[in-house]
Automatic annotation (TrEMBL):
One of its GO terms (cellular component) is cytoplasm. Keywords: Cytoplasm, Molybdenum cofactor biosynthesis. PANTHER family: FORMATE DEHYDROGENASE (PTHR30592), SULFUR CARRIER PROTEIN FDHD (PTHR30592:SF1). One of its GO terms (molecular function) is sulfurtransferase activity. Belongs to the FdhD family. It is found in: Cytoplasm. The active site is at C110. HAMAP family: FdhD (MF_00187). It comes from the Bacteria. Its main location: cytoplasm. This is Sulfur carrier protein FdhD.
Length: 281
C-alpha cells in the first residue's frame, strides 16, 4: 500500500537571492477505483488511507447503499496503476444498482462527474431534522481541536481535512485526503461503520464549502456544517433548502453564519432571530 506522504528534494529560491536544497514531504495521490459487484462505479484520485471508510462513505453519499450493512464484503486490492476498493452488495441494493446502470446506458452525459443530465447535478436532497444547537465556544473548540489531529496536513501542508463533532465527545472522526470531497466521504464512512448518523453532531471542514459537500452533509443528516473557508452561492442555496446551518470563514477571532442561524446560540439568537437570513442570491 502506498504511503500517505513521501519525501522529495526541491530547490528553494529566495526573493532576496540565493538557493538551497530542501527536503519536503508531499502527499500521495493515487487512482482509486470504486467497484460494486465486479463493476466499476467511479475512479477517483485520492489519498491511499482510510479506504474502507472511503468506500462505504462514497457508496452512501452516492445513494448506492442506505447503510454500511448493505455492503456485505469489502477489500482493498492493489494494482500496478492504482488501488481498488472492491465492494460486494447485499441483494436489494445490488438489484437497484443494476436497474440504475440500465437507466443511464445510452444517453449522452453532460460531463458533470458522470451524471446523465443537468438535472442530475442538483438531485433531490433530504431536509435535515431539528438537529443540535451549539455555542460559539463549542465552534471554536472544534476548530482548535482539528489542527493537531491533521497528521498528513501538518507534514505536507497540502491536504484537506474533514471531521465530525459531538457534544461531550469532541471530534469523534477526523479524515484527510488530497480531495475535500474524499475527506468528507471518509468521515461519513467512519460514522456509518460505528453505527452512528449525523443527526447528533456537526460536520467540520478545512476547505471551502462547495455544493457537493452540502449534499453529502444532507445525506448524512447533519444539521450544521462548519468550514474554515467561504461557501459558494449554489452551496448556500442548497443548504437553505436542505435546512442546514452553514458556518464558514471560521477563524480564531470570528466566524460567519450564512444559513439557518437559529442553531448557533449567539446572544440568544436561537429565540430571537428567524430561521434564515432569507433569500440567498
Amino acid at each position: 500500500m502506498p504511503e500517505a506522504a513521501s519525501r522529495v528534494t526541491s530547490i528553494r529560491v529566495a526573493r532576496k537571492g540565493g538557493t538551497e536544497e530542501v527536503l519536503r514531504a508531499v502527499p500521495a495521490e493515487v487512482p482509486v477505483a470504486l467497484t460494486h459487484d465486479g463493476s466499476s462505479y467511479a475512479v477517483m484520485l485520492a489519498s491511499p488511507v482510510d479506504l474502507e471508510d472511503y468506500g462505504i462513505g462514497f457508496s452512501f453519499t452516492e445513494g448506492v447503499v442506505k447503510s454500511a450493512a448493505d455492503i456485505r464484503d469489502l477489500e482493498i486490492v492493489e494494482h500496478d496503476d492504482g488501488l481498488e476498493v472492491r465492494m460486494w452488495l447485499t441483494p436489494d441494493p445490488s438489484r437497484q444498482l443494476v436497474a440504475r446502470r440500465r437507466r443511464i446506458l445510452g444517453p449522452t452525459g453532460c460531463g458533470l462527474c458522470g451524471v446523465e443530465s443537468l438535472e442530475g447535478a442538483a438531485p433531490d436532497l433530504p431536509v435535515v431534522g431539528a438537529g443540535i444547537t451549539v455555542s460559539p465556544s463549542e465552534i471554536h473548540a472544534a476548530l482548535d481541536a482539528l489542527g493537531p489531529l491533521q497528521v498528513i496536513g501538518r507534514e505536507t501542508r497540502a491536504v484537506h481535512a474533514a471531521a465530525f463533532w459531538r457534544r461531550g465527545e469532541g471530534l469523534v472522526a477526523v479524515r484527510e485526503d488530497v480531495g475535500r470531497h474524499n475527506a468528507l466521504d471518509k468521515v461519513v464512512g467512519s460514522i456509518l461503520r460505528s453505527g452512528g448518523n449525523g443527526a447528533d453532531g456537526m460536520v467540520v471542514l478545512t476547505s471551502r464549502v462547495s455544493v457537493e459537500l452540502v449534499q453529502k452533509t444532507a445525506r448524512l443528516g447533519a444539521s450544521i456544517l462548519l468550514a474554515v473557508s467561504a461557501p459558494t452561492s449554489l452551496a448556500l442555496r442548497t443548504a437553505e433548502a436542505a435546512g442546514i446551518t452553514v458556518v464558514a470563514v471560521a477563524r480564531d477571532d470570528a466566524f460567519e453564519i450564512f444559513t439557518h442561524p437559529h442553531r448557533i446560540a449567539v446572544d440568544g439568537n436561537e429565540k430571537n432571530r428567524s430561521e434564515s437570513f432569507g433569500h440567498v442570491a
